[in-house]
Amino acid sequence: MTSDSASRMIELGRRRLLPAVALTLAVGLWWAPARAAGDDSLQILKKMSDYLASQKTVSVVFDTDIEVITSDLEKIQFASSTELEMSRPDKLHVHRVGGYADVELVYDGKTLSLFGKHINSFTQVADAGTIDQLADHLTTNYGMAAPGADLLRSDVYDALAADVLVAKHIGRGVINGVECEHLAFRNHDTDWQIWIEVGDRPVPWKFVITSKTVAQAPQYTLRMREWKTGVPPAADAFEFKPPQGATKVAFESLQGIDEVPPGVAPGANQ
Fold first, then answer.
1. Second label for 215, Cα 20 to 30 Å away, from 88, 113, 205, 249?
2. Average pLDDT, the chain
3. Are 76 and 68 in contact, with CB atoms under 8 Å apart?
């Protein structure tokens, strides 16, 4: 190789490298302010918590994506849509429709009713208390996974921030055309992100939980589509009336109501 050829190759390599270096520097300059803004992430989360807790009645429509990992380490995602209405402190109505289950949950402060419309079966359990207590009972007493249930509590901030190790205010993003503050948090077992509306109505529009203790880090994502606060519910919104012909079963006999269908993803782990 002649000296002229070597010089041309060096110059060509330099020209190819410059755009990559410029892009790296641009990303670094963009990211630095986002990390520096982390000191107000907990304040923004607290503002959201205080706003939600101050609302007597809340209704929201949201979509859910839940990922599972098969025994072959394949990531499979399942999707569903949910309509939720609640009246503090002890009334809740949830209707979730997915590709494999159509489930209704009604709580009147005294009784928890679950109805699998796709199997025309229902169950009822005496459980007097508040929505906060029900959120605990769904996991501890009934073995039902409810990753987004903390957003329903009157103490959202305490529930979400209790075991936070790292908090960051990433910057801003837009969800469904709504400008949001983008926050990221780290716990021992999970990383989670939340997008909260900017302004006087700091409601969450997206909530993502990443499981760090499971291979390939599956995620659970809630994407809100419609928020309503302060709207009086219908008189019978929290009354459960079993449809004619529906079969009443024991709680443990009500099968096939999860977001993830049994047998579809063999060996799957959440």
1. 205
2. 85
3. yes
Report the pLDDT averaged over residues 122-136: 95
User: Is 18 inside any structural domain?
Assistant: no
Residue 260 covered by a domain: no
Q: How many domains does the chain have?
A: 1
Domain that holds residue 183: 40-253
Please give the model's pTM, rounded to 2 decimal places.
0.82
Burial of 82 (0-12, 13-18, 19+ CB in 10 A): buried
What's the whole-number mean pLDDT along residues 45-60? Answer: 96
CATH code, 171: 2.50.20.10
Which residue type sits at 1?
A: M
Whether residue 2 is contained in a domain is answered as no
DSSP string over 198-217: SSS---EEEEEEEETTSTT-
Collect all residues with Cβ–Cβ distance below 8 Å to 169 and sequence separation of at least 6.
Answer: 34, 37, 38, 39, 40, 41, 44, 181, 182, 183
